Amino acid sequence: MEIKKIEKNKENFMELLLEADPEKEIVQRYLEKGELYVGGDEGKTVCVCVVIKYDENTCELKNIATLPESRGKGFAGKMIKYIFEVYKNQFKRMIVGTTENMIPFYVLNGFTQYHHTVKNFFIDNYKEEIWDGNLQCIDMYYYSKEF
């Protein structure tokens, strides 16, 4: 997978970003201030992610999404390893907020420390109910990776 940082026309990747975060207005807010990375395979964009500065010591993985037909092939894992390398000399840690169902994926990919929980995050911040499989998303669980 070839990965590159996108500086201009980030909104061109909105459709794929919405796979991981279904509310366009929320994605637009962090996309503006974040850094967008795009992973391609055989000339096709298969994975995207957005990273923002959280505070002086911490950056946050705000969004990572893979095309539905490209899932299960390791693209997201490769993207996470890549961004760890990009940010490890700029910050002390990276955090990620996730749904309950996705915690094992992030732990497997290096986010091994529980950081904190934001109660009712999805209910308070989204207009529509958010579902991850058959589980309604209510709380946001944050995990971290120390560099």
What brief labels describe this structure?
5 helices, 147 residues, alpha+beta, Aminopeptidase
Describe the structure.
This protein is of the alpha+beta class. It has one domain (2-146): 3-Layer(aba) Sandwich (Aminopeptidase), CATH 3.40.630. Helices cover 26% and strands 38% of the residues. It contains five helices and nine strands. It has helices at residues 14-17, 24-33, 75-87, 103-108, 121-125, and strands spanning 2-6, 35-41, 44-55, 58-66, 93-98, 113-118, 131-132, 135-136, 140-146. It has a seven-stranded mixed sheet, with helices on both faces. Strand 4, helix 3 and strand 5 form a beta-alpha-beta unit. It is globular, with a radius of gyration of 14 Å. The two termini are 23 Å apart.
